[in-house]
C-alpha cells in the first residue's frame, strides 16, 4: 500500500522515534519531577530535552512556556475554555476543525466567522468590520487540514495586535512541516497549539502549546505537581500549573526525536507534493482544492465528478492507495466549498513519500475516472 493519509497521522516515523521510546522502558526511567534519584532525573531530562528540541524548532522559546500534554485537542480545549467567557465575542474562520469549533460552541460565546478568499485563506481584510466592544480574541487554524492553505503567522499576529486581540492558533497541520518562527512572539498575547503525531513525526498522545506573553488560561485539570504538596491549589509556576499528573515520558522521548528529525527535514519533500497537485490538476473531471498561490502544507483535497468522496477512497484503496474521504472534522469549510453532500478525497505526502508513490497514485486516480 502507498500511505498518503499523512494529514491524519504520519504512519512512517524515523527509526529513532521508536528506539527512544523503547529506551525509556528499559527499567532505568522513573517518574519525572517526583524524586531526587537518577531514575527520576533521567525521565526529567527526557521532558526538558523535548522542550529544548521544540524551542529550537521554532527559533527559540522560553522552556517553561512550552507546555506538554496529550496533543492539540487538549491544548485547544485548555486555551479556549481557559480564556473565553460566555459574554465574549470571538472571531474565528470557516476553515476550523471541530477541535476549535466544539470548545468554542461550549463556551457559549458570540462567534463571527471569516470567509475564505480564492486561495482558501481566511479573509483578514474583513476583521475590522467584525470587531465589537466585547471582541476578545482571534481563534483559527494556521494551516487547513482540508485544503492545505496556510495563513502566514506574522500576518495573523499583526491583524490581532492591530485590533488589541489575543490569538489562539491551531498548528496541528503546520508545525514541523513549514518553518514556524515563534521567537519574536514569545512576549505576545498568543497561544500556538500543536500535536505530536502528524508532521512532527512523533507518537500519538503527545503535543502541547507555546504560551506567549501574559496569557494565562485557567488550567483544565489539577492534581499532583511534585512540589507544594500541602497547597490546596496548583502551584502557579510555569509549566507546572498546566502539567498536573505524570508526564508521558515514552511518548515525549519519541516526540523529541521526531522534532529533531523535522528540524532537519523541513525543507524537503515538496517536489513529490507539487507533482501530485499538478498531476491532479491536469486530470479531467477532477476539481482540486489547494491554493494556487502562497504558503501551503503538503495536503490536497479533490472531488471526482460523478463520485462521492467515499467511493473515490474505496476505489483508490482497491488500487493500493490510502487517503481519507469525507468531511475531515471541518464541517464549515465544506459548506463554504459546497462539498457538504459528498465530502472530499484528501491526500497528503510526508518526508517518506517517493516519486514512484506519486506516479502510482496519479495512475490510480486516472484509472477510476
Ligand atoms: C487542523 C486540525 N486541528 C486539530 C486536529 C486534532 O488533532 P489531534 O487528534 O491530534 O488532537 C486535527 C487532526 O486531524 C487537525 O487536522
TrEMBL record:
Superkingdom of the organism of origin: Bacteria
Keywords (A to Z) from UniProt: Aminotransferase, Transferase
Keyword Nucleotidyltransferase: no
GO molecular function: transaminase activity
Listed SUPFAM superfamilies: PLP-dependent transferases
Family matches, as InterPro entries: Aminotrans_V_dom, PyrdxlP-dep_Trfase, PyrdxlP-dep_Trfase_major, PyrdxlP-dep_Trfase_small
Domain Aminotransferase class V: 2-358
Entry protein name: Aminotransferase class V-fold PLP-dependent enzyme
Amino acid at each position: 500500500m502507498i500511505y498518503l493519509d499523512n494529514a491524519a497521522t504520519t504512519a512512517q516515523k524515523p527509526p529513532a522515534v521508536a528506539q527512544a521510546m523503547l529506551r525509556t522502558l528499559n527499567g532505568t526511567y522513573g517518574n519525572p519531577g517526583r524524586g531526587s534519584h537518577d531514575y527520576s532525573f533521567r525521565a526529567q531530562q527526557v521532558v526538558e530535552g523535548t522542550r529544548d528540541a521544540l524551542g529550537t524548532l521554532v527559533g527559540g522559546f522560553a522552556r517553561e512556556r512550552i507546555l506538554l500534554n496529550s496533543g492539540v485537542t487538549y491544548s485547544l480545549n485548555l486555551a479556549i475554555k481557559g480564556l473565553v467567557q460566555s459574554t465574549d465575542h470571538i472571531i474565528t474562520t470557516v476553515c476550523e476543525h471541530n477541535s476549535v469549533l466544539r470548545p468554542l460552541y461550549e463556551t457559549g460565546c458570540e462567534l463571527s466567522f471569516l470567509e475564505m478568499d480564492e486561495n482558501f485563506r481566511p479573509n483578514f481584510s474583513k476583521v475590522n468590520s467584525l470587531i465589537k466592544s466585547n471582541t476578545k480574541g482571534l481563534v483559527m487554524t494556521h494551516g487547513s487540514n482540508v485544503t492545505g492553505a496556510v495563513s502566514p503567522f506574522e500576518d495573523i499576529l499583526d491583524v490581532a495586535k492591530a485590533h488589541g486581540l489575543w490569538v489562539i492558533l491551531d498548528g496541528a497541520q503546520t508545525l514541523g512541516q513549514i518553518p514556524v518562527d515563534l521567537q519574536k512572539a514569545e512576549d505576545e498575547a498568543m497561544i500556538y497549539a500543536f500535536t505530536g503525531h502528524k508532521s512532527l513525526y512523533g507518537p500519538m498522545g503527545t503535543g502541547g502549546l507555546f504560551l506567549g506573553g501574559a496569557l494565562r488560561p485557567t488550567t483544565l485539570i489539577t492534581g499532583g505537581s511534585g512540589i507544594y504538596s500541602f497547597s490546596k491549589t496548583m502551584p502557579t509556576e510555569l509549566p507546572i500549573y498546566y502539567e498536573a499528573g505524570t508526564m508521558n515520558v515514552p511518548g515525549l522521548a519519541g516526540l523529541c526525536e521526531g522534532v529533531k528529525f523535522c528540524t532537519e527535514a523541513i525543507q524537503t519533500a515538496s517536489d513529490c507534493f507539487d507533482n501530485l497537485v499538478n498531476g491532479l490538476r491536469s486530470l479531467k473531471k477532477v476539481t482540486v482544492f489547494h491554493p494556487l498561490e502562497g504558503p501551503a502544507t503538503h495536503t490536497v483535497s479533490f472531488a471526482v465528478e460523478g463520485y462521492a468522496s467515499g467511493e473515490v477512497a474505496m476505489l483508490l484503496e482497491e488500487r493500493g492507495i490510502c487517503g481519507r474521504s469525507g468531511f475531515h472534522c471541518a464541517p464549515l469549510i465544506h459548506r463554504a466549498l459546497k462539498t457538504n453532500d459528498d465530502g472530499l478525497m484528501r491526500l497528503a505526502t510526508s518526508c517518506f513519500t517517493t516519486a514512484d508513490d506519486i506516479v502510482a497514485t496519479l495512475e490510480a486516480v486516472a484509472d477510476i475516472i
